[in-house]
Amino acid sequence: MIDDKALVSQVLSGDRQAFRLLIKQNERLVGHMIARLIDRHEDREELCQDVFLKVYEKLGEFTFQSKLSTWIATIAYRHGINHLRKRKILISDLPEDESKIERFIAIDDASETLANQQLDDMVLELIEKLPPQYKAILTLYHVQEMSYPEIVEITGLPEGTVKNYLFRARQLLKEKVKQYLGKEEVL
Amino acid sequence: MKHEEELQNQIEQGLRTHDSDDALAYQRVFNSVKKEPDFHVSLPFADRIVALIEKKEERKDFGWIAAGIFLTVIALIVALAMTKVNWSTGAFTFISEYYGLFLFGIVFILLLQWIDKKLVRKQLNLH
Fold first, then answer.
1. Cα separations (Å) of B46 from A17, A21, A63, B49, B89?
2. Within its chain, how far is the Cα of B75 from the centroid?
3. In 3D, which of A154, A35, A144 has the Cα closest to residue A83?
4. Would an 8 Å CB–CB cutoff place B85 in contact with chain A?
5. Rg of chain B, C-alpha, whole Å
6. pLDDT in tens, B41-75
7. ipTM higher than the 0.90 cut
8. Are A175 and B25 a contacting pair at CB < 8 A?
9. What is the largest CA-CA distance in chain A?
């Protein structure tokens, strides 16, 4: 497999085939990040396209301080967050108030509408209802298997916040799953 | 909080089985969060992006050519105005004797440019 430096240098010299390879190597990462941040299916592919156009435009500024994939994920994350900001979608932390948390994950909705689905599907649907930053961190950590320093670089959040968001996201999901399993046992 | 954190760590590292409701629920959560989101870009995705980049660069090239022609014309007008040149076609009459040669020169240069753009640069981008 071609290393980051050689690939970047080929792309910068105008080699289109090298850029195709760069896209192929990173399209899953960008796709996962955008899919977790953006709910509207029709916007996702266009946003992924914008991310790679930005990567091409800014590639000359990449200084190899991190892995190329981390740098690309940073662009994807910021692009997704900016898109949500433009659409005035709440991206801040979950409120501490337990009653407000219910806005994000409605227990009754989940148990009624998803009663016959697999638990995996239910958890994936619950993840969709989490705040964007929680979703992004869950994806980077569990799907992309990135380290905390990499996630810190991508999101620009302090390491403590990243760990806290990850902990709280998993805890919230656990509570819902526990309730779901409890109801299942009663049935 | 501390207990929850420890529980998450133990489940993540596979150090604890589902010996309680919380542990069982966490185990299910950890299994599910590893699943990829259900989204894939369309098949010709990379080709489409490269085509967009080429289109953008072509537009940029065209912009530079247009700017070059415009500035050349402006420079010519300024030069003519400043030098108060006297127009005389006498100096250019020799061109009519080599009309074919001049025409061939212009066509040849345009052909070279076309070959460079359509064939040579395309080949470079394929490798």
1. 10, 8, 24, 5, 56
2. 31
3. A35
4. no
5. 35
6. 888 889 999 999 999 988 988 899 999 999 999 99
7. no
8. yes
9. 65
